[in-house]
Amino acid sequence: MKTFQTMSSLYAPTLKEDPADADLASHRLLLRAGMIRKTAAGLYSYLPLAWRSLEKIEDIIRDEMDTHGAQEVLLPILTPAELWEESGRYDAYGPELMRLSDRHDRDFVLGPTHEETMTDLVRGELRSYKQLPVNLYQIQQKYRDELRPRFGLMRGREFIMKDGYSFDADAEGMQRSFDTMYDAYSGVCDRCGIKALPVAADSGQIGGSTSIEFMALAEAGEAALVYCPDCGYAADEEAATVVISVEDGPETHDHELECVETPGVHTIAELAGLFDVPEAACRKAVALVDGEGRPVVCIVPGDHELNEVKASHAFGGYHLMSDEELESFGLFKGCIGPVGLPEGVSCVCDVSLRGSLSWLVGANRPESHYLGARPGRDFEPDAWEDLASAKASDACPVCGKPLAAARGIEMGQIFQLGDKYSRSMGATFLDRDGKERYFQMGCYGIGVTRTLAAVVEQCHDDSGIVWPVSVAPFEVEVVALDTADDLVWPAAQQVADQLVEAGVQVLLDDRKERPGVKFNDADLLGLPYQVILGKKAVAKGMCEVKDRATGERREVAIDEVVVEVG
Ligand code: ATP
Ligand code: MG
Ligand code: MG
Ligand code: MG
């Protein structure tokens, strides 16, 4: 990577004013610092400064992946539709998938992720258990036709991702690969200067955390999180969903939820035992029918017997009640009526459910439990916003202490896939006994461009970006204030040379601009250190070193700058 750059020849068109339509700090500052430009909705061009930071993030990811046993490859972005048809995702993935065809009318997709291509790559050639495990990753552009591309690099339609895939012989191996990637991801977050929280994520499976998201903590984050300050439990809001019980009444939903028949299970304790999850992770929904035959669902935590009594009381023979009436039964108002719910479903929540809306379900089948239902995906999210804000009052499912709420940016996510893709795509190997078996797979994604945005989101102030050294475009900006001065200009060049020689990456502001302009730009670009050379100081053989993060300025002898910031 180039270690020296003059500002006069750098392509970084900075903006004095805040751009319109850029509410998020990272979006605004990356635009203002001349690092990114929008080409079209969700499509960004990375200018030299951003590209340097992105390459540094990529190198950190590479290093963590390589030292944790993975190997880098590069697969085509253009993906034959047949592979996606094999896995069943060609239809299932929905409108986010970018589809196109070639001149022969053959269908393709622009890869939003590469489970299919990667599985296809190894099937037939990775044949023996002796060759396992194998972990392959790539860093490339991904394409998703996001409904609302926004927030600059946060949610693009084209973005850079590192995606990796592990192939193991059995579940234990898969767990080991997963744990290793967990370490690698923690390393990436630390080294990029990101304060991240690994949280349990919804994986649509029962119990255990088979998927973890790495959340960069930020007010502006799109993801709502809960965490337990006491025992360290953390989950994204969606993952709080574990088990949902629904009884009686007609089937009404058309959502793809896993429904498990559980004859004879009637209490929360039995549910928890059956699915091997904490009791606090279980909720029961008692589905009833109102006077006009419309299903009414009452969701109540706690003891089943009691809930049934409450439900029938509350509905007085299964009729919907007014808010006042509901309140008189201690039920939460505002959740009644068909607002925001799938057609034909009404719902009432128990008071004690405030904030526990993840357990909501709108479907009825006797003696069954739904797994992994969540608002937002299975229901209109708006209806539940009030409740969502009360989430923090929930009890921790592990230790029962109160949970706290936070917001985060999903930087990365790791999954245990099991044989989902190896089975649908027929990817097998021969085990020790010569028996054909499906690979146990894991997949691991981290957004490179989103990580850049997350860094800026966490590291900025009113004047601009405050780069952590590890991902800063350059490490030091040498600010020559009087470039026409006989002493200042040679001194600035000398300092720059010395720093470069010491292995420091230097940006030299050699422009014929007023000091105010240079100071503002230096703070906006936010390199970790500024070495400022003005007439007065240079005459004494001195310059000023400013630490961008603390704002601290110190007079330093020109000869000693390297010692100070090297
Ligand atoms: P989100 O929940 O924000 O839509 P996702 O769960 O769909 O993200 P994954 O499929 O887990 O994303 O992809 C792995 C990583 O790729 C994410 O953790 C994120 O860092 C990044 N990523 C996903 N979608 C985008 C996007 N539209 N723009 C930029 N980065 C993205
Ligand atoms: Mg997404
Ligand atoms: Mg996500
Ligand atoms: Mg994800």
UniProtKB/TrEMBL annotation:
UniProt cross-references to Gene3D superfamilies, sorted A to Z: Anticodon-binding domain (3.40.50.800), Bira Bifunctional Protein, Domain 2 (3.30.930.10), YbaK/aminoacyl-tRNA synthetase-associated domain (3.90.960.10)
SUPFAM superfamilies in the record: Class II aaRS ABD-related, Class II aaRS and biotin synthetases, YbaK/ProRS associated domain
Location within or outside the cell: Cytoplasm
Presence of keyword Nucleus: no
EC number: 6.1.1.15
Domain notes: Consists of three domains: the N-terminal catalytic domain, the editing domain and the C-terminal anticodon-binding domain.
Name listed for the protein in its UniProt record: Proline--tRNA ligase
Organism expressing this protein natively: Granulimonas faecalis
Gene name for this UniProt entry: proS
